[in-house]
UniProtKB/TrEMBL annotation:
It holds the Pfam family GGACT. Belongs to the gamma-glutamylcyclotransferase family. GO terms for cellular component: cytosol. SUPFAM superfamilies: Gamma-glutamyl cyclotransferase-like. It comes from Halteria grandinella. Signal peptide: none annotated. This is Gamma-glutamylcyclotransferase family protein. PANTHER family: GAMMA-GLUTAMYLAMINECYCLOTRANSFERASE, TROPONIN C-AKIN-1 PROTEIN. Transmembrane segments: none annotated. InterPro entries: AIG2-like_dom (IPR009288), GGACT (IPR039126), GGCT-like (IPR013024), GGCT-like_sf (IPR036568). The active site is at 81 (proton acceptor).
Length: 141
């Protein structure tokens, strides 16, 4: 299988519920943290949505990169993400090491009436905007 990468910025990241639910460690290997080269805007309503755009107020999106160990996992993620209003797109991600990889990412099909997280980092939203009970619900047990 040719190397494929997945960029996650929300509940598929380590420590959040979909990471465990989707058994991420069985289908991919954690590579490291990075940020998108393409700019976007993050909107949150308990879960995050990213709209890729080149507006003057857009910013890189922060997240985690995984190396996929099987092609089938993308189909499983599609079954989770596409009905929830996302589309799968390719983005360039600059790793903390400075290397750049091409990765799949799920971006929102259209904006929703939700809160914009201007830092572009879902962890900031969770820690600063959610109540303690919501944070506990968001984190895996």
């Amino acid at each position: 299988m040719e190397s494929q990468y997945l960029f996650t910025y929300g509940t598929l990241m380590r420590d959040y519920y979909n990471h465990e639910r989707m058994q991420m460690s069985s289908f991919c290997e954690y590579v490291g943290r990075g940020q998108t080269v393409e700019k976007g805007m993050m909107f949150c309503n308990f879960i995050p949505y990213v709209k890729l755009c080149e507006y003057s107020n857009s910013y890189p999106i922060q997240g985690e990169v995984y190396s996929l160990t099987t092609d089938d996992f993308l189909l499983q993620l599609d079954a989770l993400e596409l009905p929830a209003g996302y589309k799968r797109v390719q983005v360039r991600v600059t790793m903390e090491s400075g290397d750049t990889v091409q990765a799949w990412m799920y971006a929102v099909k259209r904006e929703k009436e939700i809160y914009e997280e201007k830092s572009g980092d879902f962890r900031v939203y969770v820690e600063t905007k959610l109540s303690e009970s919501e944070r506990k619900e968001m984190k895996k047990c």
